[in-house]
Structure formats: C-alpha cells, structure tokens
C-alpha cells in the first residue's frame, strides 16, 4: 500500500483585536484593518479599498470580501 505524503496545512487568515480596532492577518502579512471612529461606526481598509460601516461584523465582512476579490481579480494594468 502506498504511503501518502503529508501536506502542509494551508494557513488561514485570522482577526487580531487591537486597541481601537481589529487587524486581519495571514501569517505575518497584514491583509486589512478595521478601526473605531470617534463619532460612532467603523472605518475599514483592505486591498486598496476603504469604506465605513455601522457595525463591527459588517466592517469585518467587508474586509474579508475585499481580500477575496483582490485575490481572484486580475490587475487592470500589469507590466
């Protein structure tokens, strides 16, 4: 019977909580972040896109969506 090679586990991105927000990491690479705005709400930024959301779960999902879209979409201008 043939032995199977062990594959390295695929690293998964994770959220890390900070002082005024959260950061989305993949290993040591920062993928995006969500920060708390003084007058209420959250500001997010990932993959060259930014935005605002009313709640933390909405801001986190926007960051995750931006990261997935940037990973699958081809760059417009490539050398």
Which structural traits does this protein have?
about 80 residues; alpha+beta; 5-stranded antiparallel beta sheet; 1 helix; 5 strands; about 35% strand
Share of helical residues: 10-25%
How far apart the termini lie comes to 48 Å
The tally of beta strands, per DSSP, is 5
Number of distinct helices: 1
Low-pLDDT segments:
none
Determine the mean pLDDT: 91
Give the overall silhouette. extended
Write out the strand line-up for the largest beta sheet, numbering strands in chain order. Answer: 1-2-3-4-5
Sheet with most strands: 5 strands, antiparallel
Beta-sheet strand percentage?
35-45%
Offer a concise description of the structure.
This protein is an alpha+beta fold and 79 residues long. 22% of the residues lie in helices and 35% in strands.
Describe this structure in words.
The protein is an alpha+beta fold. It has 1 helix and 5 strands. The protein has one helix spanning 56-72, and strands at 14-17, 21-26, 29-36, 42-46, 49-53. It has a 5-stranded antiparallel sheet, with helices on one face. The N and C termini lie far apart (48 Å). The model has no long low-confidence stretch (mean pLDDT 91).
